[in-house]
Amino acid sequence: MSTPSKPLAGIKVLDISRVLAGPWCGQMLADMGADVIKVERPVAGDDTRHWGPPWLEGTAESAYYLCANRGKRSVTIDMAKPEGQALIRQLVAQSDVLLENFKVGGLKRYGLDYASLKTLNPRLVYCSITGFGQESPYAHRAGYDFMIQAMGGIMSLTGKPDLEPGGGPVKSGVAFTDIFTGLYAANAVLAALYQRRDTDAGCHIDMALMDVQVGVLANQALNYLTSGKVPQRLGNAHPNIVPYQAFATFDGHMIIAVGNDEQFRRFCEVLSLSELPTDARFATNGARVHQRETLVPILQAALAQRTTDEWLAALETVGVPCGPINTLDRVFDDPHVKARGLKQTLPHSQAGVVNLVANPIRMNGESISASTAPPSLGEHTDAILEEIGISPAQRQALQEAGII
């Protein structure tokens, strides 16, 4: 439910998406104060409810579902049936935003496509999330994060070089493209709502996972477009900065992220290699990139002589960016993560409490993260349908017919 002090208080979002990209967008809007109504299939619900283990203890809620649905209300409606479609249209009439990630054209047969709903609610901001967009040679294809990571180039850049042991393409450890698409979609929705203040008209937002994946190739895309050379996998190294990678220490590994020549000078002094910054081969970042194969083994040999904690203490003292490679238990035990409240514990209707990751946005010193847990399936069906005038007797009949 919306909170009066939050930026999107008073905005109603109908979220008929499922899995990750759409729900991630909806969760962002819920965190900002929108009333996000999650429409799910009766009995089955969002696919991700079944993507476990692990499960929240004492419930059938998967951890995967919990990661993308805080702050929402859940209503179960079978939109494949005319009565369900009629309920969706009643909700649309009172909504500001609709989120969907059905295949291109999939909602037209239900009368729930943008062209149909625009006539019902001209101010509706309708956001479609698909693999390849509404107009594409691939528009008919389903889009999955893993597949898009491969097609969109990021897997050609991630992993060790082919000739090294363990070399080959590697996907991100989380659904990188889905999450970015959800964030881009939320930004687009906010822009459309802002524009609507002047035009009094909604719009159709066309988000494609493939577009987003290409869009976030960032410096690597420009490396190719500028030079014409196809970037290759470098493992944990950086294509444009040296040294900027993982190094082995006496007892583990750490990250060194030297961003300029002055930092390199201080780094070398700590390593007792003060002659390196005066060597023309290594004096500038551009030179170091060209001499990567020569320089990195020298640095690696020095870093292997002391423990990670010893290097971290010495390098932080002189302002050289560095850090440990933490497992998730260490992440959530980190003083920064604790101080910033990134682990959020909320009441849960079935489990008592649930641990979540808070939204990282802070406004006026406070997290904007929603204060309600991801809803159980159909938890708010009665309340939501009552708000659009569906009487208890009507709800009973709809339930008996399997519509809700």
Automatic annotation (TrEMBL):
Instruction: Output the superkingdom of the source species.
Output: Bacteria
Tell whether Magnesium is among the UniProt keywords: no
Give the UniProt keywords, A-Z.
Answer: Transferase
Keyword Transferase present in the record's keywords: the answer is: yes
- A Pfam family found in this protein is CoA_transf_3
The record ties this protein, via Gene3D superfamilies, to: Crotonobetainyl-coa:carnitine coa-transferase, domain 1 (3.40.50.10540), formyl-coa transferase, domain 3 (3.30.1540.10)
Tell me what this protein is called: Crotonobetainyl-CoA:carnitine CoA-transferase CaiB-like acyl-CoA transferase
Q: Which organism is it from?
A: Vreelandella songnenensis
